[in-house]
Amino acid sequence: MNKSAKKILAALLSTTMAFSLASCSGPGGSGKKTVGIAMPTKSLERWNRDGEYLKDLFEKAGYKVELKYSDNKTDQQNNDIQNMIADKVDLLLIAAVDGSTLTQTLDDAKKAKIPVVAYDRLIMNTDAVSYYVSFDNYTVGKLQGEFVRDKLELESAAGPFNIEFTAGDPADNNATYFFNGAYEALQSYIDAGKLVIKSGKKTFEQVATEKWKTETALANMQNTLASYYSDGTVLDVALCSNDSTALGVAQAIGSDYKGSNKPIVTGQDGDVANLRNIVDGVQTMTVYKNVRDQAGVTVEVSKAILDGKTPGSDLIGSLPAEAVYDTDSYNNGVKNVPSYLLVPYVITADNLQKLVDTTLYKWDDAHKYLESTAETT
Ligand code: BGC
Questions:
Q1: So where are the chain's domains?
Q2: Ligand 1, atom nearest to 47 Cα
Q3: Cα–Cα dist 83/70, whole Å
């Protein structure tokens, strides 16, 4: 074979190879499988972290990633997911804006044989969701309630103490778990009159915060303070389900509160602004959920599914973080969704170093406040 014939043969071979790779799988013909990730919003710190960590870990594991944020809009999230189905992604990972609005879209995913994993928030009313990866949501609330119990020494103190609740988004299935966990940890003291809810707002519906918005939580707490605490009545506890709401509540307390004390303010997530408030004594605690671990567990569960396996408790030993496998607790209205639940823990001003030890935070130059080491937050 002369030189030019060899060249033609080489060119032909590489074209054939490129073709066969292209037909292998995944958009773009890279031969890699693609994971479609739908996140709710960029406006809250945690989802930026989740997106970044998930993308990073999936790519390191050899997958391609399509990552979409839906600006907290259900229509947009449905569209985003429809587009990913059209792109023939191999697996869908969804943190729902509204867990009950995806039924139709996920029927289409099922028809296209794309497995669906619910991320952090359960997706309701569909049999198309195969797995759920989250934290133990009830325990998040329970930790907040128990923190208040211990801080006020409710077992022995005479009281009464005044408490107000601020809960999350009614469209988020997690929100009732958080609220119930906290409320039930304190219920016996409320029933005994040791803890008093001056506003009378005792149910989740009465204290819910649409879209978990800081401004809404701020306005609601301003109303409560104006209506029930304007005469200097002491508020002892503002039990907030998460950090975005705690930010608004702490702001209302800072500007509109006439009492002489600093109320206990709870939170969840470890957002940098809230960790600042914790150092400044404006917020008292946050329940921390390591989302890099959550992303790591999710990648392992997804890998198993993409390898054609049916993961169960067998996966627990090989996960990168402590988690339990639970097939009973999360029913989405159609079925019990097998769940991998990670373990949350309490952070206060006294153990901030624990967050630095995760490597996801670092001290600022003055060694006073924490900063994020994530790129997008
Ligand atoms: C998450 C929380 C978060 C909240 C608001 C919940 O579903 O579990 O970590 O604070 O949504 O984004």
A1: 34-135+290-342, 138-268
A2: 12
A3: 12
Residue 90 CA to ligand 1 center (angstroms) comes to 26
- C-alpha 325/C-alpha 55 separation (Å) is 24
pLDDT, tens only, 270-293: 999 999 999 999 999 999 999 999
Q: Compute the distance from residue 235 Cα to the ligand 1 centre, in Å.
A: 25
Q: Is the pLDDT of residue 2 over 60?
A: no
Mean predicted confidence (pLDDT) in 91-112: 98
46 lines ligand 1 (CB under 6 A): yes
Alpha-carbon distance of 205 to 352, in angstroms, equals: 33
| CATH tag, 34-135+290-342 | 3.40.50.2300
In the reported structure, the alpha carbon of residue 83 is separated from the centroid of ligand 1 by a whole-number distance in angstroms of 25
312-327 mean pLDDT: 97
Name the residue at shortest CA distance from atom 3 of ligand 1: 242
Q: Is 138-268 the same fold as 34-135+290-342?
A: yes
Instruction: Specify the pTM.
Output: 0.92
Could you give the CA distance from residue 238 to residue 241 in angstroms, rounded to a whole number?
Answer: 10
CATH code of domain 138-268: 3.40.50.2300
Instruction: Tell me which residue of 275, 231, 232, 230 sits closest to 250, measured CA to CA.
Output: 275
DSSP-derived letter for residue 57 is: H
Residues 6+ apart with CB under 8 A from 303: 61
Q: Confidence class of residue 377 from pLDDT cuts 50, 70 and 90? A: low
**Beta carbons within 8 Å of 221's beta carbon, 6+ residues apart:** 164, 166, 238, 248, 249, 252, 253, 256
Region of 31 on the Ramachandran plot (φ > 0 left; ψ -120 to 50 alpha; else beta): left
Q: Note the pLDDT tens digit of each residue in 326-368.
A: 999 999 999 999 999 999 999 999 999 999 999 999 999 999 9
Question: Ligand 1 pocket check: which of 212, 272, 274 to mutate, most ligand atoms within 8 Å of Cβ?
Answer: 212
Q: Report how far Cα 270 is from the mean position of its chain's Cα atoms.
A: 11
Residue 172 Cβ < 6 Å to ligand 1:
yes
Nearest to residue 247, comparing CAs of 223, 224, 219, 228?
219
Return the pLDDT at 22: 39
